[in-house]
Amino acid sequence: MINGLGSKPNRRFISFGNRSYVITQSLKKMRGEDRQAALNPKQFRRLGSDKFIDISTLDESDPDIYETIFYKEVPVVNGNMDETVIVTYSPKYRAYQKRIRQQQISRAIKMIEQPGRKRRGKNQNDPARFIKTTNVTNDGEIAGKKVCELDLDKIRDEEKYDGFYAVITNLEDDISGILKINRQRWEIEENFRIMKTDFEARPVYVRREDRIKAHFLTCYISLLVYRLLEKKMRNNYACNEILSTLRSMQVTLLSKESGYIPSYKRTGLTDDLHKAFGFHTDYEFISKSAMRSIIKNTKTGKAKK
Fold first, then answer.
1. Residues 6+ apart with CB under 8 A from 186
2. Which of 221, 222, 226, 292 is the most buried (most CB within 10 A)?
């Protein structure tokens, strides 16, 4: 039985007739010695340079470093198949994975605090994987009570892979050509994740073709607007953080003659949103005339771009 498109039998079949492939390689499923070599921070390089770099010494706050993809080649031999694993490291990808995991840890904490809460189907991204259950004992006997807590060892184990991405190939091509094939793949995967989860692109509860097209067009436009907003926020926040904050930013009308007060909690994210767009709704009191000016400026494009 062949397990997965990138399985060894599939790769062997693809290679017949001098055909080539570039397939995603799971670092967790590599042999121990190969995985150790892949995750070793030394002997990485930048594209176009022969100088080896220790990625553990990088200043990832430097914008140039943050946007750079570093790589190393790890030759592997599988029987009579000569292959190379191309391991890439991206500080930007690392920050993305860290944000996603932190959201999952937060959900895991809520699951611990609310044990009766309904759970979704279990999958590899289920926050429950960060929860370990221990049987409480009394004088060496199991008392029948279970205690749930965060599995810190599991969290630390996943952190080891942050920023790394790998492909396996039999191409004997210039490394830039191989990296070009794989470039921004994780960002494409993230777009689909955002579309499916945050924008609820699927499942679709419409039948007519024009309505289906309208639904997906709305989702794609939303994704474009979100990506532009994300750049304004300097990629400092995860998608669900931005969306949940925007949805919570409500104001309350005190009276028809007076004005508005914010009915949301001020945070660093709300401050950054106001700074990015050049107006404020977080004052203690906003007169009706000030609010009309804010709305007018956003419609005419006079708000900060």
1. 90, 93, 96, 165
2. 226
Run of H or E residues at 113 = helix 91-113
Assess contact for 295 and 277: CB atoms under 8 A. no
Secondary structure (DSSP) of 246-292: HHH--EEE--SSSEEEE-S---HHHHHHHHHHT--S-SS-EEHHHHH
Residue type, 185: R
Separation CA 22–CA 32 (nearest Å) = 22
> In the numeric block, which tokens belong to residue 195?
């579309």
CB atoms near residue 216 (< 10 Å): 15
Six token digits for residue 269 = 């994210």
Token pair for 117: 């809460």
Measure the CA–CA gap between 76 and 169, rounded to whole angstroms. 10
pLDDT, tens only, 236-283: 787 878 888 998 999 998 877 788 999 999 999 999 999 888 888 888
CA gap 304, 298 in Å, rounded: 9
Q: Is 44 exposed, middle or buried (0-12, 13-18, 19+ CB in 10 A)?
A: buried
